[in-house]
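Training component of the fellowship. As part of building independent skills, the fellow (R.M.) carried out the full modelling exercise for a liganded target. The chosen ligand was LJ64HWYM. The inputs are recorded below so that the supervisory panel can assess the work.
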Amino acid sequence: MLHESTRGEAPALSFSDALLAGLARDGGLYVPKSWPVLPQSEIAGFAGKSYTQVAERVLGALTDGDIETKALGEMIAAAYAGFRHPAVCPLTQLADNLFVLELFHGPTLAFKDVAMQLLGRLMDHVLALRGERATIVGATSGDTGGAAIDAFKGLARVDVFILYPQGRVSDVQRRQMTTVDAPNVHAIAVDGTFDDCQNLLKAMFNHHAFRDEIGLSGVNSINWARVAAQSVYYFTSAVALGGPARKVSFAVPTGNFGDVLAGFVAKRMGLPIERLLIGTNSNDILARTLASGVYEMRGVAATTSPSMDIQISSNFERLLFEAHDRDGAAVRRLMQSLQQSGRFEIAAGPLAKIRNEFDATAVDEAQTAAEIDRSWREAGYLLDPHTAVGVGAARRGLEADPATPMIVLGTAHPAKFPVAVKAASGVSPALPAHLADLMERQERFTLLPNDLARIEDFVRQNARAVRGAAA
Ligand SMILES: Cc1ncc(COP(=O)(O)O)c(C=O)c1O
Ligand SMILES: N[C@@H](CCOP(=O)(O)O)C(=O)O
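Fellow's submitted model of the complex:
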């Protein structure tokens, strides 16, 4: 199966090539040329199967033989062997028809681990087969960075550079990036916001000479493999609640739109999903867009759910591509408008298609804190602030449709955000044992200005990788 760019001007690539490419050379994002559809009988058969068995089938369909089946199965098994829960991504019930899908049992306590632990192995596997090396540059608002560093630390074929916004991530998130002492890992604090970091990253991808010189790869959710791996837990959780015979809805705390897009992918693959609810914090660009049809950037505000403090929601481009019937030229025009004027308007037809499947709602700081407090008092369950945004959105969704089970994606462990959680609930969540001494570990990072040339120089000087050189 080939993958095409949302901007229609880059060459179509296999899964492995799209995995290494990250962003397409025309600035677009890769998606499969068509969606593989799983028969309903096969989805029903996922009941009682382990997470890894379902992952083998879902990712087998999405990789379509490009990764050898036995190797894929071994990588999936290894990726999830270290998760702290035997179900990998268990479901917990909060209230009537309200469930939290816990995605934070991996090494860095965030949903990013679910895809990243597999991505590290997939990239290493493909690079080894090709005798190549890569330089990964990632942008993070807090969680992707730590998960990428954990997944890629110590790998001989890869150097990892993570750009994070200085002073805008939680202490736990920062330390998960800055305390890993591996020669191939570089944490870079950027004097700017997450959107600045993501813009720098995209500029590096669009600087083709630099991209080729260092063998640039990306592990943000602009990389199709990230979204593919995240689609698996939609299947396991829906089936656990009676799918595919019974439809479920999902509420997803959203920033870069990767996680909720994975739900859209699962739906395209045949999973019956009633509604996909986008929950934003007070950086509500997606909620405004669905309400008005106008995607319009405003300044980003710092919130207690910092990983969602985003204005440029990269994966929304993949949804726009679908909503415009895969017309790359139309998407190109929208993205040019965004770059030139900070806004674009979605025409009535594509907007109706988006609204047909998605709802969006913003949950402000007071409501987020109230959700943390309420869930603790009523269910004895401690939410992290991002998951609390999802629960806030879910409760509104349940008011409209109380009969359909609602699954909230639990995207982070509360101990990643102890200050906000304690302020809201009075409870101090403890870090799991493997991170108990995180606050005492030595930090290593480089502070750089929001300046493309300076950051490219730093990467160039510290990257050992040249695409095509034998590892
Ligand atoms: C804890 C947490 N929740 C939610 C999100 C939003 O996910 P996405 O960017 O895929 O929309 C992020 C960041 O990606 C996150 O780290
Ligand atoms: N919230 C993210 C931002 C980057 O998202 P990604 O899913 O595109 O990697 C983070 O925590 O870094």
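The panel noted the following from the submitted structure. The domain at 91-110+226-425 is CATH 3.40.50.1100 (Rossmann fold). Residues 466-471 have pLDDT under 50 and may be disordered.
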